[in-house]
Amino acid sequence: MRAVFPNLPPTFQSAIKGLPMRPPYFGACTAAMDGNEVITSHDLTTETRFDERFVQLCIGHGIRALQSRPVLGRDRFPIGTFVMGYSKPADVRDFDIALMEFAADAIGTVLQAHWDGAA
Question: Using the 8-state DSSP alphabet, how is residue 63 labeled?
Answer without folding.
Answer: -
